[in-house]
Amino acid sequence: xxxxxxxxxxxxxxxxxxxxxxxxxxxxxxxxxxxIAGAFGYFDASFLTALPNRIWSLVTNSQLLAIPLFVxxxxxxxxxxxxxxxxxxxxxxMAGIRGGLALAVVGVGVLLAASTGIVGAxxxxxxxxxxxxxxxxxxxPKLSSGLICASGTLGQIIPPSIILILLGDIxxxxxxxxxxxxxxxxxxxxxxGDLFAGAMIPGLxxxxxxxxxxxxxxxxxxxxxxxxxxxxxxxxxxxxSLVPPLLLVFLVLGSIxxxxxxxxxxxxxxxxxxxxxxxxxxxxxxxxxxxxxxxxVKVNSMIFAILIGAIFFSLVFRGLGGDxxxxxxxxxxxxxxxxVMLIVMLLLFILGxxxxxIEITFVVVPIVAPILLTxxxxxxxxxxxxxxxxxxxxxxxxFGFALFYLRGVVxxxxxxxxxxxxxxxxxxxxxxMLIVLSFFPQLATWLPKMIYG
Length: 453
Hints:
Number of strands: 0
Shape: globular
Largest sheet: none
Order of helices and strands: HHHHHHHHHHHHHHHHHHHHH
Oligomer: single chain
């Protein structure tokens, strides 16, 4: 059975790497192996009787309802071009200051991460607007490309982040199972708000590390001629472009972290706020609303279809004894928690070269998280570590999505190889952030404890 579980795992990941649709691959491979193993008496079909209940629990999970609302909020902000206005205004404000434009890109990346969280839209917008301005001011094309890709992925760690919502649901269940196995029959709970609060300091610290690196690199830039600089924005432009997204971020994150609203309630506030801002700017009409709704439906259908496939996969993997085999393998390693955590983080990083964060989150994390939590790892710290690690999957070739997004809009003369080389320092910074967080878990655990006790 253990060999079958290993073969099942390898077969499924081979299909994913070859590019087959994720949801159908997970469900199809699970069905195939359950039938074959069942025919030879190595799989108990009673495991599959839990599938309807698992799917029903998924679609009625109020915590996951935040995902479609946050997706809709991000799409509405993109369609209303609020993100574009924010980037243009920030670029004008910081242009001419040595390293200022790079700071503007990082700052806008943080704000867009906290308001839209959509990597593709952020990278494309900054690639079209900020990259030409950075090249004009003498920034290195490779590092400029790398900075835009890296800043665009901040939405994966800075709340409200879809990956944190998904991890919150997975880790919450795993954390309760781990406590029950330890004989704790009144288990503590883990909420999405805990992970949002835990990710705030590491996310902002990561952005600061990007900024410091670019400011250090900008020392070699020559001064920019005044006639080449854009006109400074007027106060009215600053108020209309900067204040609305800041207000939206305050409403969404403030209500969650302050304990006034759940992630789902806050997402509803954010979606309504994005709709109101778009209407006030006069940029949302009926056709744009229809397009936004259709795009949101497509994205959310993909996410929940993958979730259903992942549920099927986990049931079959558990029925083949895969969970027990992985647990024995990891717990028998010398070095205890440190070795297990190191191997898991290394595995996630390597898988990020070939798979996207959704596939890794739904397939790998449910297998390894219960083991780590049973060994006493803090769930908030584990969630933030995984989120930062998976953020690198957007930047690592050959399948880094941020690289593809930027490649479609970069000026002529910048090759794919330039973009790949440009992201290397920022991947190194992300890995450095993981090392810092591993030595100082309080960076992730302090704020949730301060807020929620």
